[in-house]
Amino acid sequence: MARGDDEFIAFAQASSSRLQRAAYLLTGDQHQAEEAAQATLVRVYAAWGRISRKDPYAYARTVLANLVTDQWRRPMREYATETMPEQQAPQDVADVVSKRRWLIGVLQALSPRERAVIVLRHFFDASEAEVARELGLPAGTVKALNSRALAKLRITAGLVPPLRTETEAGAGL
Amino acid sequence: MTQLEDLKDAMHSPPDFQPAPLDLQQVMSAGGRMRRRRRLAVGGASALTVAALLIGGSQLAGLRGPVGPMPGSGVSAPSAGVSAAPGVVGTIVETGRQAEGRRWIIYAETVDPNDLDATLTLVLGRTRTGTIDDFDRVIVSSDPGAGRLAPGFHAVQAGRLVEGRTTPTFGYYVGDAARITARDATTGKTVEAKRASWSAFDESERATIFWFDFTQGKPPATLTDLTAGG
């Protein structure tokens, strides 16, 4: 084993689930998510010597977002729409899982760039400046994409207690 | 309407998705191969860079008078077979200007591709053929120590006259920069730099190489208030 391999393995084990989950949000496909997360970790390992003392998780996040959006650029699979699916009936919305499923469905209907901004900003909790740097976009564009995507998702800025009623082990680092 | 916390909750616990165990042995094998390819790529360029170093060194030695401070100019030629050999990284930027039939170019190089943050160095040089083996290194510039990929301006060198040839004010900037400007201390006017995107091996290693336009034979403008605008 090369020097630093133990540290990399620990990092990969701790971050694998979260990277896959982010990849799933970005691709909408379980198999593609596994491939994207694996390809991300390959690049993280290749660069481990210079990133392990900094912020390897931020590095992985950047690589993942760009890997997925690069793939989108090639086949031009742009399926953004201004018409979002209707939210389900109130009795269904009360159901946490139904609401989650609806939100993930709407997320998949965003444009790739909107989705990347939403995932980096609200899944990884990156700042607008970080998102701009990591996606190579002007800060103003990130702000606009975020606002437009939240509008499509019909998100209000109100503060309410989190809806989370169950947690997944290994969701965080 | 939905709350932002609902969206975060849904993203952290998406229904219909379960993370799978990844094959870390395969990850490390593929990552190791990628690392070796990068070193080979940089090492391959380095053989040519060594020739350029020697050419550039002899011409620098022939300079009359000081050329001003050249931080980072102590790059030494590597021994063959060392994986962490110096070499050109990323795009070679054409400034569009030339002197005596040689085009002014700017490029980045490193002595350790795995530690660009502490080794990235910017080179202003001239070339006749556009190939690396006739690069004439004129100014070598780098920041001291690490942090060379931290947001902000780096390796900035003011324009000067070197053996009667005008060199531009140049450097690189890490971060968003839709415009890079400076103030001409003589005229008081704001001037805008020309820019070229630069990246090394992956998405996190990006910068903008910039230079201010310059006219051969004329003294370079004295510039102040270097600013990057989003």
Automatic annotation (TrEMBL), chain A:
Q: Which UniProt keywords apply?
A: DNA-binding, Sigma factor, Transcription, Transcription regulation
* SUPFAM superfamilies documented for this protein: Sigma2 domain of RNA polymerase sigma factors, Sigma3 and sigma4 domains of RNA polymerase sigma factors
Q: Does the keyword Ion transport apply?
A: no
One Pfam family, please name it: Sigma70_r4
What are the RNA polymerase sigma-70 region domain coordinates in residue numbering? 16-74, 106-154
Q: Which InterPro entries match?
A: RNA_pol_sigma-70-like, RNA_pol_sigma-70_dom, RNA_pol_sigma-E_actinobac, RNA_pol_sigma70_r2, RNA_pol_sigma70_r4, RNA_pol_sigma_r2, RNA_pol_sigma_r3/r4-like, WH-like_DNA-bd_sf
Q: Which family is this sequence assigned to?
A: Belongs to the sigma-70 factor family. ECF subfamily.
* Protein name as annotated: RNA polymerase sigma-70 factor, sigma-E family
Organism expressing this protein natively: Paractinoplanes atraurantiacus
Automatic annotation (TrEMBL), chain B:
Looking at the record's lineage, which domain of life comes first?
Answer: Bacteria
Q: Where is this region: Disordered?
A: 1-22
> Compositional bias (Basic and acidic residues) at which positions?
1-11
Provide the species name: Paractinoplanes atraurantiacus
Q: Which UniProt keywords apply?
A: Membrane, Transmembrane, Transmembrane helix
Membrane spanning stretches: 40-61
List the taxonomic lineage: Bacteria, Bacillati, Actinomycetota, Actinomycetes, Micromonosporales
Q: Which protein is depicted?
A: Uncharacterized protein
